[in-house]
Amino acid sequence: MKDAVAPLLALLLAVSLPVGAVAATGPIDGGVAASTKPIETNETTNRLALESDVQSGYAETGPDLATTLAIQDDAMRVDRELFVVDENFAAQTNDERRETLEAAYDRLRQRIDALEQRERTAVRRHTRGEISDGEFVTVLLRNYREATELEDALTELEDRATRVPGYSISIDSDRGRLGTYQSPVRAQLDATTDGGVETIDGAVLVDTSQDGFILSAMHGRVYLREATRFDNRDVTRPNQFQSISDAFEHAESQYPWAFDQPPGVGSRGATEFTAAQLYRIRAPTVHGDLEAYLDGGSKEVYREFQELTIDELPSTPENRTWTSDSLALSVNRTPVNGPVEITVVDRETGEPVDGTVTVNGYDVGRTGEDGTVWILPPADDFDVAVRSADGNMDVSISSSYPSV
């Protein structure tokens, strides 16, 4: 396992923040990004992308003791908040119960604040080469699981509040913030890391820059992609949207193809999380599902989740074929640095060749009986090596980032 999700507990503590930290705004290391909007593409959904100086790498997945211990520690700390509430709740007056609930609610919200800062710190360290791809993925998994634990704890706290006459807690906006850490790709990674059924095919691709990150994986024939732009989150400005309809219309301008779908694909919708100044937009398409979180302060896309069927994506064949003494390799690209299909055949007969494929020295799969394998390409130019019983070859392929 070349770069497994197996960091030391000391590293996990290093990228965590104490409860009470406030989520930051703006770019990680300062400056203004050249483009904060999704990259435009034809015949499929636009996609949120990173700017220059993108660091790319692969991380393997699977059961991991250090990750499990860190996640369990997070869960125990969240559970303790409810224990503190319940310890003397029955004997307290209504005023004392309100004080207890408000204190617990404040502590839980502080833990939510710390999630983004934990990710910002991890992105900064990954971009600087201070932590590995696997260690970075571990941070994202920790946040996914803690977000789930916090959501459950808030629901229980909301239930406790109903027992106090004239008192209530509204956690809708908190749920909205927690939803930004509960992407489909993290859910599949969590299932794999937790020792369940292996749902991720091969390695995950990690891209980071000073402005955010992209996490990509393959789940069967589905391309899972999560993109975050921290520079698009600005809680210091008042909400720029006049209404939820205004936010919905703005999302349509960001993803015009996704909003121009034939009848029967599914219903689009928007949810407003007022206190968090977030708007969740959901748009099913013929290629798969799009979910985007718009920030009210910047009016830009803060987080974006996509689940796309690779067989439905438009693709463009590379205008050349690479050859060795015995093999021929061709490439088929999908938009915005999406999955790339690599096909290897016998140079003379044209018959498919079954062999192992590596990208930048990392094992990404086998071509199989049909001679093809789908890979997740790094942001920059990359080297592909094929090893087979019919021969070997090494080629360098230029990047198509950010679009084909």
TrEMBL record:
Domain Fibronectin-III type-like, first and last residues per copy: 319-392
InterPro entries in the cross-refs: DUF7094 (IPR055520), DUF7096 (IPR055522), Fn3_arc (IPR056397)
Domain DUF7096 stretches: 1-196
DUF7094 domain mapped to chain residues: 204-314
Keywords: Coiled coil
Coiled-coil blocks: 91-160
Domain of life: Archaea
Pfam families: DUF7094, DUF7096, Fn3_arc
Name assigned to this protein: Carboxypeptidase regulatory-like domain-containing protein
Lineage of the species this protein comes from: Archaea, Methanobacteriati, Methanobacteriota, Stenosarchaea group, Halobacteria
